[in-house]
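Subject: complex prediction, re-run

Hi both,

The earlier run crashed halfway through, so I resubmitted it with identical inputs.
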Amino acid sequence: MQYPEPVAKLIDSYMHLPGIGKKTATRLAFYTIDMNKDDVLNFAEALTDTKEKLKFCSICGNITENDPCDICADPNRDQSKILVVEQPKDVATMEKMKDYKGLYHVLHGVLSPMEGKGPDDINISSLIQRLQKNEAIQEVIVATNATPEGDATAMYLARLLKPAGIKVTRLARGLSVGSDIEYADEMTLFKAVEGRTEM
Amino acid sequence: MQYPEPVAKLIDSYMHLPGIGKKTATRLAFYTIDMNKDDVLNFAEALTDTKEKLKFCSICGNITENDPCDICADPNRDQSKILVVEQPKDVATMEKMKDYKGLYHVLHGVLSPMEGKGPDDINISSLIQRLQKNEAIQEVIVATNATPEGDATAMYLARLLKPAGIKVTRLARGLSVGSDIEYADEMTLFKAVEGRTEM
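This time it finished cleanly. Structure:
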């Protein structure tokens, strides 16, 4: 016996999600069958909405319902700073901090020679255009991940933008707040010593 | 900044699933945004279908697209045996074994005094009706889980059905195939010794 077709289809859909294998997908599918109807229909609608209502902001590349996005359209944001991130979710993470009041730019990826991703494959040209069009921008803060690819992308942007007289900065490296020196890896310790600040 | 509304809604929906907290839900939502449109719309449709196309078989209580379900409607199944399980997913699990050719009955729960679940709260009365209507049935195999509630439900069914002259059996207890005696718990070892078979 096969599962009834709607069940098989739902298991298959759950298996498309990262980290979910056949067993978990089956468990989730049977759980879904027992969920109340409204919750399931809301779930289905939320999925459809991501494809039908969400778009990328034509200025910064962040996901948004309105174009330009709420951040780009907000005159109260500090127009002199652009913080560059790899993915839309990084914007949400930075915003949680509630301290940064500037603008964003989403690259939708990083430079990765291993995967054949060059400067033309990520959202860099539109960043250049923003900088050319808008003379208020004084600083570009590169907030790519602390990975080799993130580092390479940061270096690339610094070399590209500094000759144009724009200040390019990177997020500090060091110990995570609350972490033990005992458990820090060597590279992190090295960066923490290198970037030490006076008290 | 809040997430755009469709993203917030999707995170919320993912959080309805068991074992998925806010962080995983957020990760899944952003993953979904990057998935291709067809996969997401299929996923949404699969969810809707579970509520719109699936129903419970009026005979055995299993989930099905057609009523009666494929198993109840199949004249080639052994009409003399009914295997009683707790949940629809247990039917699917038993069917994977490919050896059992009889019919099923899904209780949709177990007796649980702790949760205030008595015989009227699970699908027992329809089992009695099936047995009364169909004289071909000779054996009821109780395949509830090996939990206190599953055991209690099995005992209840045995006491209820045996006086009517129906053979009531339970799945064997013992060592899992491939398991080490070293790691078996005492109850399982006790049941394995008790149920030992001659070679």
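The radius of gyration of chain B is 22 Å.

- K.
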